[in-house]
Write a structure and sequence with these properties.
Layout: H1 10-23, E1 39-41, E2 56-59, E3 64-67, E4 71-75, E5 83-85, H2 86-94, H3 100-111, H4 120-130, H5 138-147, E6 160-163, E7 166-169, H6 186-198, H7 220-228, E8 247-249, H8 263-269, H9 275-278, E9 289-294, E10 323-329, H10 338-342, E11 344-348, H11 364-370, E12 372-378, H12 385-388, E13 392-397, H13 405-423
Pfam families: CDC73_C
Protein name: RNA pol II accessory factor, Cdc73 family-domain-containing protein
InterPro entries: Cdc73/Parafibromin, CDC73_C, CDC73_C_sf
């Protein structure tokens, strides 16, 4: 008889046995069918179908002779000393298609007096694990609890078996990170794609096309995202910025309250839409948006020019209520010259100082001394500690009352125009 060697390790035997049942596909067989693997052998080293008369099992791939009465790391409340032997497991798998009552009555007949049966829940649990329907087995956990030790790692290490065209790998260092149930994480690729390509320069517009025209109101969000992303890497010579349009910077993160997806509808139409809903209207994340607004007449009061200033103006006039086009972006990569940065009139702070890394003024104190700062939050949110020390104006929106969006937006435009008129009047129409 061949030497048992390291294959007689109970944990290794259990792991190999499960690999064999999985390699068979875990399919149900007849009540009288015996499991062909591992092959059971009689005392005379001859193969037999009678588990009751056999003493050893031939366990692949080493073809080691394993005693059928070897206790396995499975604990049953009904088995003799609690531990399930290889003989008992062979009988359980051989009668996997039998009713529980038939299994109970014929366990000793099929496996001999040393074959012990398990309870109905334990049988169901073990068969589900052997078929690959479950990743864990409660009988193993019970064995660990009763023995006061951990199951040897070899019971769950890589066990690869080749049988003609069948190859099954139970676990390995390359498969431990594989998500169960074939979960789809493609949405993470879409989320991370935008920040990765945001810094890449888009192709410059053709000179023959001239300046880009505004889209119709019915499709302004989707059209603006397509036409604006074609701007060059610098704004100094961009056709869409021939009149030195002012610039507003918003946070780049999708977790921010204000993003490139919903800033246009909020600042132009006074309608707040959560980012996850607003992004459905875009094929891809816009890198440059145009917001059209009729600037308030400096001689008029804020109340008399309230909601009418949220729509595009039709008249022109330097600083006297003409149309005002403001560019919005979430990355300063296009701002390559001092003249470009001079056109920045407002920055929405998301609450994290890393937002300003790589900017001309990376320090928040210096930044908000040069531009007007704003922080947008919901009424039930606390002001981030970092923002409390910044020179920013706090805009508070209600989480559910959308009719209160208009006063907040009007407050923003009134404050911004007042600041621009006092600090950068050349950027007003």
């Amino acid at each position: 008889m061949a030497d048992m060697g390291p294959s007689a390790n109970p944990a290794h035997v259990l792991a190999t046995f499960r690999s064999l049942t999985l390699a068979q596909g875990g399919g149900a067989q007849g009540a009288q069918a015996l499991c062909p693997l591992p092959m059971v052998i009689a005392p005379a080293d001859s193969p037999t179908d009678d588990i009751a008369q056999a003493t050893h099992a031939l366990l692949p791939p080493e073809n080691a002779h394993i005693p059928l009465d070897l206790p396995l790391p499975l604990w049953s409340s009904k088995a003799g000393l609690g531990q399930v032997t290889l003989r008992s497991l062979l009988v359980l798998w051989a009668m996997r298609s039998s009713a529980f009552g038939e299994y109970m009555m014929n366990t000793a007949m099929r496996g001999g007096p040393k074959a012990a049966s398990v309870t109905a829940p334990e049988r169901q649990e073990t068969l589900a694990w052997l078929r690959g329907e479950k990743d864990g087995c409660k009988l193993i956990e019970q064995w660990v609890a009763h023995m006061g030790t951990q199951a040897p790692t070899s019971a769950f290490s890589a066990t690869t078996l080749r049988s003609s065209d069948i190859e099954y790998t139970q676990r390995s260092r390359l498969t431990y990170l594989t998500a169960p149930n074939a979960k789809d994480f493609s949405y993470l690729v879409k989320i991370t794609h935008d920040p990765l390509v945001r810094g890449k320069a888009a192709p410059k517009p053709s000179h023959a096309n001239g300046s880009s025209s505004s889209s119709a109101p019915a499709s302004k969000h989707r059209s603006s995202s397509r036409s604006s992303t074609g701007a060059g890497s610098s704004l100094s010579s961009a056709a869409t910025s021939a009149k030195s349009d002012p610039i507003i910077l918003v946070p780049p993160g999708l977790n921010s309250l204000l993003t490139m997806y919903n800033v246009k509808s909020l600042l132009e139409d006074a309608k707040f839409t959560p980012t996850d809903q607003a992004r459905l209207a875009f094929d891809k994340k816009p890198t440059l948006l145009e917001i059209h607004r009729k600037a308030a007449d400096p001689g008029s009061s804020s109340s008399s020019s309230s909601s009418s200033t949220l729509v595009s103006g039709t008249s022109s006039g330097g600083g006297s209520g003409g149309p005002w086009k403001v560019l919005v972006m979430d990355s300063p990569d296009r701002l390559q010259t001092a003249a470009d940065w001079d056109r920045v009139i407002a920055v929405f702070a998301g609450g994290m100082a890393w937002q300003f890394d790589g900017w001309r003024w990376s320090n928040a104190v210096d930044l908000f001394g040069k531009v007007r700062g704003y922080h947008l939050r919901m009424h039930d949110e606390q002001v981030p500690p970092s923002v409390q020390g910044w020179n920013v104006k706090h805009l508070v929106m209600h989480r559910t009352k959308r009719h209160l969006d208009l006063p907040v937006v009007l407050e923003f435009w009134t404050d911004l125009e007042r600041w621009v008129r006092g600090h950068k009047p050349h950027l007003l129409p």
